[in-house]
Amino acid sequence: MADFNQMIIDEFRSNGGHVSTAGFGDSLVVLHTIGAKSGEIRLNPLMAIPEEGSWLVVGSAAGSPKDPAWVHNLRAHPAIDIEVPVDGAVQTIAVTVSEVPDGEWAGSWQKFLDASEGFAKYLETAEGRRFPIFRLSPA
Description:
Elements: H1 2-14, E1 28-34, E2 41-47, E3 49-51, E4 54-58, H2 69-76, E5 79-86, E6 89-99, H3 102-115, H4 118-122, E7 133-138
Antiparallel strand pairs: 1-2, 1-5, 3-4, 4-7, 5-6, 6-7
């Protein structure tokens, strides 16, 4: 998975944020999470839904029954940088991270379902896990 992620990050950076691989298009951001234990920067390319000047990302882990490691890292260190496409270039911006509360979760989840049918398929293998959704707001 690390090799695939690096390939996506490289394509994202070299094409101004556009990724043709797997049909990602212009819908990705690259999270710079901070390892909860190691303190090391980890890069994670994720589909993001723009929302009123911020972005939503979901910890689906492709339908795994466990949260991806970056979820734990975001909860431990909610002030991070992200890379986003802006006018054909990639910019790095500082964001603060907040987890979408229960009362907003269903509406936020629907945005991911509307964006890609793949998210509905992830429910089949997640063993009932509710995927955490995070809002990335410019700091």
